[in-house]
Amino acid sequence: MDPPSLLGTPVADAPAGDPDHFADLGLDRVVGEVTAHDPETAPLFRAPAPSVAAARYRQEFCRALRQDTDLATGLRRFGATMASMREARANAERLRLRPERDAWYLDGARRYLAAVAGLRAALADATDPPAAVRDLRAHLDALTESPEHRALADDAAEAAALMDAVEYTVRIKKSDVRVGRYHGEPDYGAEVAAVFDRFRVDGAARRAEDVPVRPGLDGVEAAILTDVTALFPDTFRALARFRERHAGAGDPVVARADLEIRWYLAYLDFVARLEATGVPFTLPVIVDEPVLDAHGTVDLAMASELVHRGEHVVGNDLRLGADERVLVVTGPNHGGKTALARAFGQIHQLAALGLPVPGTAVEIGLFDALFTQFERPESVDDRRGRLEADIVGMREILTAATGHSVVVMNETFASTSLEDGARLGSAVVRRLVDRGVRCVYVTFVDEIALLGDGVVSMTADVPGAPSARTFRVRRGRPQGLAHAAALARRHGLDAETLRRRIAS
């Protein structure tokens, strides 16, 4: 049996950098915000589930985290303990004085053991646990009973007990510092602390454990440690043996679970912040067929920006019926067309990751590849013009796309004439429909939206005031002249106004 992963199947080699479509869809900004405090989790956003079963496995775990607050709290505590373990081990690696290195390594091992125990307890207390919790819990049960883990726990307890038994005195007289064994001498440190306690405003006594322990010793501290090591040679030899015996100790499944849990919780925290402002999220119904039916979905990158500015977020519906494959979106500039196209791509990527997606209800199929073709400014480093870049890009997409692929096109072929844009765009759309590719195409060419079989026309609302925007995009025939008519009315150039002026 393969070691369990909270992703259903372990992510072996996530891409080192973002896929090409991340920037086009604004996913780079979403992932950047989610992982700002934990960049190590970013590669998991590039690892969609390989099957419907794996995606549903992730969804069940997400649902448990959203519904079982005790489970989420326990897993956050586990993550914090693992973070302190990594910090202790990092300290052990960079310190030069061996006894100090060994002590930090022991501290890291004890924190790891505490993390495993805490994780096991959190999973054991989960109500209605999903498969991911059950699988990891079974692994932890076997791990804690293994000879290696038992030896680590026993040796750590023994070494810690020896260290706890170390008691010594430090006598300081001017520049003379002497270290000796403790024989019951008065603790002048406690007496000094008692004197100053009377001056504490809050009345709370300060405890030794309240003082943070920092790695690295100054010259005097290092000299004291050297003398203490000489006073207790057996203890520090045992400490060194512990590190040698258990170098690199730690279960890789636990380390992977830590990363995966941090990934889930970071995204769910992002979701919770948006939900608190009224942006809806749901776990989509994932099916085997290449379908899409999403209600009230939004462009997450834009939604996050709007929420930060205190502005309202508008959701839209996206649907591809059984015989529909391409959504062609037309309408005035800045009316929400590109945001809708990004939302189309985003919900496919997030659903494939097994994560909640923006919307009130979503049914969606997974994809084998996600392609984007967005209009880009010309670059001095690229000798091709925009039209050639669009043609080459679409040829590559049409060569690779299958009936389970997703394509997002934004103003493709916009750099050529209206006639050529209509001809090229229509040819591409027909190829995509024939192949069964799910696609959204934002274009200024109304004729493409009227191609018929397999093509659905959507248009951005055109309100009476030409400068106003509702950001609603609905199914319907193109309204190419509607925006022009609104502008004409605004400037008194519509037919009715002109007739009145001529008559007068």
From TrEMBL:
One GO-annotated biological process of the protein: mismatch repair
GO MF entry, a single one: ATP binding
Keyword DNA-binding: yes
Keyword entries, A-Z: ATP-binding, DNA-binding, Nucleotide-binding
InterPro entries to which the protein is assigned, alphabetical: DNA_mismatch_repair_MutS_C, MutS, P-loop_NTPase
PANTHER family: DNA MISMATCH REPAIR PROTEIN MSH1, MITOCHONDRIAL, DNA MISMATCH REPAIR PROTEIN MUTS FAMILY MEMBER
Protein known as: DNA mismatch repair protein MutS
Organism: Tsukamurella tyrosinosolvens
